[in-house]
Design goal:
The complex is a heterodimer.
Chain A: E1 2-6, H1 9-19, E2 25-31, E3 34-40, E4 46-53, E5 59-62, E6 66-71, H2 72-79, E7 87-92, E8 98-104, E9 111-117, E10 126-127, E11 135-140, H3 141-151, E12 157-163, E13 166-173, E14 176-183, E15 196-199, E16 203-208, H4 209-215, E17 224-229, E18 235-241, E19 245-251
Antiparallel strand pairs in A: 1-5, 1-7, 2-3, 2-6, 3-4, 4-19, 7-8, 8-9, 11-15, 11-17, 12-13, 12-16, 13-14, 17-18, 18-19
Chain B: E1 12-13
Classes of the chains: A mainly beta, B mainly beta.
């Protein structure tokens, strides 16, 4: 028996919004420690890694490890049937071929359940070693989202250049070029608005705007984001989901022409 | 989109 309950359906909707741009379907691996998801986008350029801890749920039970392959468009249809403040419970029997979503309104006057067929997905998992990055940038997630959106008007790629002075995001194309520089800030009063850089050595890498913009669909999950970079390895964009877990996106850097 | 390596070239499948 698997059962996981969240007080707010809105959180699950945000998690789904954060992955459905990149993935059509995904396997949710459930164990007694929580729910994990790892999947590459269809072009295999980026990778999504989601972790939801068991203790972040209001109720969590997983008697046997279970992998639930879900079509994310179908899951979106079902979650649209929930109000954001409805409680959601995800349930499945061991070896089940379907999963049930139960939505309960705040006053319990409306209870609805939706059953969805599960899929057998043959997904390849990649082992990602813990790495010391040359630089790690912590910044407001809304600012990162804004920068990606603004720069994607100019070109298909963004150059991220990190030095001890700060971080520079640049893009160029037919209409011209754009540069956005962020300096480190020391605003202790508004910690969530700070930009901080842990720098071992300066790094400059180029990434596709299209993927960065997809990653920023996780912005509603967290007001902070971290960007971890080292030369010639994938960028890691991480959003901590408060009291529940995290979502990480990995993106291969552009190859030098 | 510009030429780009697959993410799988950086990590080992398991």
């Amino acid at each position: 028996m698997f059962e996981a309950r969240l007080v707010s359906s809105g959180t699950l909707k945000k998690v789904l919004d954060a992955i459905k741009d990149l993935l059509n379907e995904a396997s949710f691996d459930c164990s007694d420690t929580g729910i994990q998801l790892q999947a590459m986008d269809s072009s295999h350029v980026s990778l999504v890694s989601l972790s939801l801890r068991a203790d972040g749920f209001d109720k969590y039970r997983c008697d046997r490890n279970l992998t639930m392959g879900m079509n994310l468009a179908s899951m979106t249809k079902i979650l649209k049937c929930a109000n954001n403040d409805d409680t959601v419970t995800v349930k499945a029997q061991d070896d089940a071929d379907c999963v049930t979503f139960v939505f309960e309104s705040k006053k319990q006057e409306k209870i609805s359940d939706y059953e969805m067929k599960l899929m057998n997905l043959d997904q390849e998992h990649l082992g990602i070693p813990e790495t010391d990055f040359s630089c790690v940038i912590h910044m407001p997630s809304g600012e990162f989202s804004r920068i990606c959106r603004d720069l994607s008007q100019f070109g298909e790629s963004v150059i991220i250049s990190c030095t001890k002075e700060g971080v520079r995001f640049s893009s160029s194309g037919d209409i011209g070029s754009a540069n956005i520089k962020l300096a480190q800030t020391n605003n202790i009063d508004k910690e969530e608005e700070t930009v901080s850089i842990d720098l071992q050595e300066p790094v400059t890498l180029t990434f596709a705007c299209q993927y960065l913009n997809s990653f920023t669909k996780a912005t509603p999950l967290s007001n902070r984001v971290s960007l971890s970079m080292s030369a010639n390895v994938p960028l890691v964009v991480e959003y901590e989901i408060p009291d529940l877990g995290h979502i990480r996106y990995y993106l291969a850097p552009k190859i030098e022409e | 989109l510009f030429p780009q390596e697959e993410i799988g070239t950086y990590y080992t499948p398991y």
